[in-house]
Write a structure and sequence with these properties.
456 residues, alpha/beta, Amidase signature (AS) enzymes, 2 domains, 38% helix, 16% strand, globular
C-alpha cells in the first residue's frame, strides 16, 4: 500500500473500513505531517490534537470514519469560534456546532485543523490574512487562491486528502484552480450551511469540498449534502463554450489548455460543442459583487466601522466602509439582473448540458503583487477572476473547477457549470475529463512533496 497519507480520500476511507489502516495511527501521522510541512505553507492555522482524538474516539461508523479533514476558518467548531482570517469580524462569533461540523462528525470524520483564509473572505488570492498569507504548494511565492486558501493548500500539499471550503463569489473554485485541485461549488441551498454567520441572509454562499479529484469530491460533498451523489455516464454531453472575454481575454497557455480539455471532453463523451453568448455576463458579474457586499450590513454602523481593530488590513477596513456607500438602487438593480440571468440560463440549459470556460484567466500570481498579464493588459487577479466565477453564485447554479494543464509549472483549470441541481452531472463530466487525459493532471503533485511535478 502507498504511504497512507498520500492515499486519496476514498482510498483512505476504504482502507480504514477494511481494517487495513489504524485510525489512531492515521490521525497521529496527519498531525505530524502538518507539523512538518505546514510552516512553509501556513495552510493550517490551528490544530487541536486532543479535540481531534476525542472526535475519533466518539466517531460513529460512516462513509468517512477516521478520515482526517481540514475545515475553513469560516465555520465554528464546538471548541473554537471562526475568525474569517480577520483581526475583527463585524458579526458576533462563538464556538458552536456548525452544519459542516455536524455533517463531518456524523460521517465519522475527524477534523484535524482549521484552514487559513483570505481576510473576511474578500479576495480570490489568499494573500492577506490575520494569520499571514497561505502559500501555494506549487510555488510558495505564488497565491494559493481565495478565499479558501488554507483548505486548498492543505490538500495540494497532502496534509489531508480532503477539506471543506466555502464559495460566496468563487472562493472554492479559485483556490482549486491555483492549487491544481477539483473543487465543486454546489447548487445554492444544497450543502450544509448552519452555523455560518451569514446562513440566514446570504443568497450566494455555499459550503463545498476541495479534493484531488472528482471521485473524492463526490464522497466529501455527499457528506455535506446529506445525500449520496451517485455516479453516471455523461454520454452525448452538449458542451456550451462561453464566448467573450471570459474565454478569450486569457493567457495563451490557459486558453490552449482549456480548448484542448473541452475537445477531450467532447470526444470522451461522444458529445458536441457549441459557442454560447451570454450578453448579460459583465452586468451579472457586477450584480454579484453588489449583492455579496450588501448582504449582512444590518449590524454595521459608522460608529462600529470607526472602531475597527487596527490589525485589520487597510484593504479590509476600506472594503467594509465602502459597503455603507453602496446606493440602495444599485442593489435593487442587481436583483433585477439576477432574475434576468436566471431566465437566460434556463433557456441556455435547454440547449446545452454544461457551460465551459477557464476557471481563472491566468495561473497563480505572485503573493507580493497579485497581478495577471492578459491580452487586454495588466489586471488585478480579483477583477480578472470574478468574470468567470460570479455567475454561479448570482444564479445559484453548481460549478466545478477541474485541473487540465500547466503553465510555468503552475496548474491551469477549466470550469464547468450546469443547471440547478445537476451537481452530479458536473462530477460525472469531471471524471470523464480525467479519463480523457489519463488522470495526468489530478495525479500531478507539487514540489513540496518531492515528487514529479508539472511540466512547463
Amino acid at each position: 500500500m502507498s504511504e497512507p497519507l498520500d492515499l486519496s480520500l476514498r482510498r483512505q476511507a476504504a482502507a480504514l473500513a477494511a481494517g487495513e489502516l489504524d485510525p489512531s495511527e492515521l490521525l497521529e501521522a496527519t498531525l505530524a505531517r502538518i507539523e512538518e510541512r505546514n510552516p512553509a505553507l501556513n495552510a493550517v492555522v490551528e490544530t487541536f490534537p486532543e479535540h481531534s482524538r476525542e472526535m475519533l474516539a466518539a466517531a460513529p461508523p460512516g462513509p468517512l470514519h477516521g478520515v482526517p479533514i481540514v475545515i475553513k476558518d469560516e465555520w465554528p467548531l464546538p471548541w473554537r469560534a471562526q475568525r474569517f482570517g480577520a483581526a475583527e469580524m463585524l458579526a458576533h462569533a462563538e464556538p458552536g456546532e456548525s452544519g459542516p461540523y455536524r455533517a463531518l462528525r456524523d460521517a465519522g470524520a475527524v477534523i484535524v485543523g482549521v484552514g487559513n483564509m483570505h481576510e473576511l473572505g474578500a479576495s480570490s488570492t489568499g494573500n492577506i490574512s490575520v494569520y499571514g498569507p497561505a502559500h501555494n504548494p506549487w510555488n510558495p511565492e505564488r497565491c494559493p487562491g481565495g478565499s479558501s486558501s488554507g483548505p486548498a493548500a492543505s490538500v495540494a500539499a497532502r496534509l489531508v486528502a480532503g477539506a471543506v471550503g466555502a464559495d460566496g463569489v468563487g472562493s472554492i473554485r479559485y483556490p482549486a484552480a491555483y492549487c491544481g485541485l477539483t473543487g465543486l461549488k454546489p447548487t445554492f441551498g444544497r450543502s450544509a450551511m448552519a452555523g455560518h454567520h451569514m446562513a440566514e441572509i446570504s443568497t450566494t454562499i455555499v459550503s463545498g469540498a476541495l479534493c484531488a479529484d472528482a471521485a473524492d469530491c463526490r464522497l466529501l460533498d455527499s457528506v455535506l449534502f446529506g445525500e449520496a451523489l451517485t455516479a453516471g455516464e455523461p454520454a452525448g454531453l452538449r458542451i456550451g463554450v462561453i464566448g467573450g472575454e471570459v474565454s478569450e481575454d486569457v493567457a495563451p497557455a490557459v486558453r490552449e489548455a482549456c480548448e484542448t480539455a473541452i475537445e477531450d471532453l467532447r470526444r470522451q463523451t461522444g458529445g458536441e460543442v457549441r459557442e454560447i453568448e451570454l450578453p448579460e455576463l459583465a452586468a451579472a458579474t457586477l450584480a454579484t459583487v453588489l449583492i455579496a457586499n450588501s448582504e449582512g450590513l444590518g449590524d454595521v454602523t459608522p460608529e462600529r466601522l470607526n472602531r475597527l481593530d487596527p490589525e485589520l488590513s487597510p484593504i479590509g477596513r476600506g472594503l467594509l466602509k465602502y459597503r455603507l456607500l453602496l446606493p440602495a438602487i444599485a442593489t435593487v438593480k442587481a436583483q433585477q439582473l439576477r432574475t434576468l440571468a436566471r431566465h437566460t440560463l434556463a433557456r441556455v440549459f435547454e440547449e446545452v448540458d454544461v457551460l465551459a470556460c477557464p476557471t481563472v484567466p491566468a495561473v497563480a500570481p505572485p503573493l507580493e503583487a497579485p497581478l495577471v498579464e492578459l491580452p487586454s493588459g495588466t489586471l488585478t487577479a480579483d477583477e480578472a477572476n470574478v468574470r468567470g466565477g460570479a455567475l454561479a453564485n448570482l444564479t445559484g447554479i453548481p460549478a466545478i473547477s477541474v485541473p487540465v494543464g500547466s503553465s510555468d509549472g503552475l496548474p491551469v483549470a477549466l470550469q464547468l457549470q450546469a443547471a440547478w441541481g445537476r451537481d452530479e452531472l458536473l462530477l460525472d463530466a469531471a471524471e470523464a475529463l480525467e479519463c480523457a487525459n489519463d488522470r495526468r493532471w489530478v495525479e500531478a503533485t507539487p514540489p513540496v512533496l518531492g515528487a514529479e511535478t508539472l511540466g512547463a
